[in-house]
Amino acid sequence: MIIAIDGPAGAGKSSVAQRVAEELGFQLLDTGAIYRSVALVSLEAGLSWEDGPALGDLASQLDIRYQLRDGQNRVFLRLRGGTERDVSGSLRTPEISQGASKVANHPEVRAALLELQRRIGRARPSVVEGRDIGTVVFPDARCKVFLTASPQERARRRHTQLVERGATEVPTIDAIAREIRERDTRDSERAVAPLRAAADAVQVDSSDITEDAVVARIVALASPDKRD
Ligand code: DC
Q: How many A from CA of 111 to the centre of ligand 1?
């Protein structure tokens, strides 16, 4: 049982996916965390983020486990033959965000991670959040949502987040919106598994509705699956 939630950065996927998973008692599979883990481990191993074959080999040795508890989705990583460790605190730095988007461009990495994502997702009822879940990873998911928000609204949210975090240099909302549009173009035009809505996905625009409403909408869409 898979609920696929795809969409661009800043549309509110992470918190929405987490709340939907909690409400339904499903596992939350944050696939971005897997790409981030590859970036982290390759950085530690001294591999270049441009070396597709080496990164693909590394990705094929990766195992990930999640634990959703007290509103936090912890990520545990293990390389074949190694011991498991909690990497939750190391995945969200700007450096790893950059690295994740670079490693995600290599077909070797995407192919290796495809199997891992499918294995984790098939083990338990799951909410799977990412960019290519409804199109590539779980094309047979019975509930697919493509969550969007206007670039202006995503920029506004990102701006508020930076201010709340006490960031020292906060760009203007217009500058953030420009950067978001550029990233959208790059993500949707990438050759392998570009960001796009599956033909059978329900598009949910979160620009003008509350997060509560988005969560309720997705839970309602998933409910017929639950009754099966
Ligand atoms: O969702 P996120 O910001 O944690 O994702 C990190 C990077 O991983 C992002 O730049 C795009 C990539 N990614 C991907 O290519 N495919 C996915 N299913 C999930 C993430």
A: 14
